[in-house]
Amino acid sequence: MTDPVLSVRDLRTHFFTRAGVVKAVDGVSFDLAAGEILGLVGESGSGKTVTGFSILGLIDAPGRIVEGSVMLNGTELTSLPEAQLRARRGRDISMVFQDPIATLNPMLTIGQQMRLAINAHEKLGRRAAEARAAELLTQVGIPSAEARLRSYPHEFSGGMRQRVAIAIALLHRPSVIVADEPTTALDVSIQAQILYQMRDLAAQTGTALIWISHDLAVVSSLATRLAVMYAGRIVEQGPTATLLRDPRHPYTAGLIASLPATSKPGEPLAQIPGTTPSLLSLPPGCPFAPRCARQTPACTEEPALTIEADRGWRCFHPVGQMHEEPA
Fold first, then answer.
1. In contact, 287 and 300? CB cutoff 8 Å
2. Residue 317's pLDDT is what?
3. Which residues have a Cβ under 8 Å from the Cβ of 232 and sit 6 or more positions away?
4. Parallel, antiparallel, or unpaired: how do β-strands 233-239 and 311-314 relate?
5. Furthest-apart CA pair in the chain: how many Å?
6. CATH 3.40.50.1240 for domain 4-92+172-313
7. To which H or E segment does residue 165 belong?
8. pTM of the prediction?
9. DSSP string for 85-111
10. Where are the domains of the chain?
């Protein structure tokens, strides 16, 4: 088995506010192999986006990484000086944001922006840089790529702008791309096209992807492996097909049951009762216990990680196994 390109261990990112300490990421661990697509899923506020930002060292005050390791190709990112970390962003690890406007400058043409991104890490002549930029635009499905280099962001549709953002992230063939819900605001058909192209690009280039999404249906069509987050923690992870067919954590099972595809026509969608807890005042033990039909007094303790073959979960009473009924 080859070494992972990215290894995250016990990552903890806290925000120190006047109201208290928000444990946005609380002990996250996973590995990512070359060409692998990891889907990071969960409800809003589960810590998915903060995990992605933490990996790239993009956490601003009052937040900071308080513990843990982020190893990229054998280099520890959390201890790198800012200048060295900045030199690796875009070259070795990139991010695609939910809103492409966060990436694109409205005052510059697409070609100018892509040349700037290239020259930030390597010096290429204008023609060579434009040739690479056009090649990447073609790969992400933008027609007449050479001509579109002279266009401004406002001349592209939302879907096309997101393709440009993805092309910029791919310019230096990074080992890892973190994509933060990049297709959420797009039309379903455009979303499907981008997902298909990203799957192909990962296979062709060997770039690994972390695809952050609250939409389990979308990410399960793309990811080779899923990590399900709740209240800042990964509560279950494993191969996509395995988790969808046979979930162990009640939260994972609840997310799957709430998908429209799992309900009969005319019947109401299943829902997970209650709401996500405040990260300022998490319950003791398992944070999902107050919403869980399988909770018992044991759930007031922190569940240990159970590993079975190529999957793992944190639950005293896994789905599909016998458990003590609540008193």
1. no
2. 94
3. 23, 24, 25, 26, 27, 28, 46, 47, 50, 279
4. antiparallel
5. 72
6. no
7. helix 158-169
8. 0.91
9. HHHHBTTTEEEE-SSGGGT--TTS-HH
10. 4-92+172-313, 105-171
